[in-house]
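[Meeting: bench + compute handoff]

Bench side (C.D.) handed over the final construct sequence. Compute side (W.E.) agreed to return the predicted structure before the next meeting so the bench team could plan truncations. Sequence as handed over:
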Amino acid sequence: TVVWTATPFFTLTAANTLSLSDDYLTAGTLSLRRERSKYISNIFSLYGDYRRDTLSVSPYYVLSTFFDEGGQDTVTHSVGVTLSKAFLIRNTATVGYEYLVSDTSDDGEDTSGHQVTLSLAHQLNVETSVGLSGSYAHRYVSGGGLPGSDEYYIVTVSVFGSYTVSGIWSASASTGYSWLRAI
């Protein structure tokens, strides 16, 4: 990870994580893989962060590559931005947008689409925050996907809370509901 503080208000962060393994438990985010075969996974990210008074703007780009020995390879590009605004001293509203394109080799499943996220947090005291969050993602799939459909959406709603003892430890919890629907 490399962080460049361009101005007192703007920082740019570049990070890269490279993994070479055959552990099936770490091969995918859903842990659906059950056989051992070597893979290379690389995640490169570039994040900007502009903070001024009570406003924060954070654009980002993430390149994720997954190369499977003898299997399908996947390359995913995500670009987005998050806007955050503090108001009435103890409240923060956040809205985000992301566009994703994911291509899988050997006539695999290719996915693209948009996602919008919203969050409202309230700081109860110095250590404790609570809030609501939600997201809506609309995805297009080619070369696979849901049976009988090449388009779907995912909606998520949750409540969350966090407790932090600065510099020592923190705990957070959330509960919510998600649903997926083919269009």
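W.E. noted at the follow-up: DSSP finds no helices and ten strands in the chain. C.D. will use this when planning the next construct.
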